[in-house]
Design goal:
The strands form 3 sheets. Strands 7-6-9-10 form a 4-stranded antiparallel sheet, with no helix packed on it. A 3-stranded antiparallel sheet has the order 1-2-3, with no helix packed on it. The chain has a domain of 99 residues: Immunoglobulin-like (Sandwich). With 147 residues, the chain is mainly β.
Amino acid sequence: TTGSSSDSDSSPTVLSVEDNPDGGCHIYRNGYYGSSIDVVEGILEVNIIQMTSIQMTESQAENSLVDFVVTCQGSLPTDVCTVVSDPTCQVSKSMVCDPIAVTDECLLTIRRAFEEPGTYCINITLGDDISQALASALISVNGGEST
């Protein structure tokens, strides 16, 4: 039950009644309740604006490397996670997380390796202490080339 206090303070008084299942008695609590809410901006949006295959010599071609250029809006991220899944985005094949240092503009390049040619679903998540934002894309990796 909530009511007004009888003194000159106009703050509401909170009265709570709890049942004690063992003894059947009641506990009465009187007091004031206060709370504050901090609104934080967080990371609002992530976009993959470019995907570029890194050309390597045949002797280096164990894995195909792809650079993802990513932008974001809102607060600056402190870490990035990349999840590589099957083309349906249902079965995860690998996950890599790294700390990042973005100083004034959210524009970063993320390099990831692919062990074999194929079509993959890529989820890139940017995060900080209070928020996360995700961007997804399908990519086709063809032995050193991507589309």
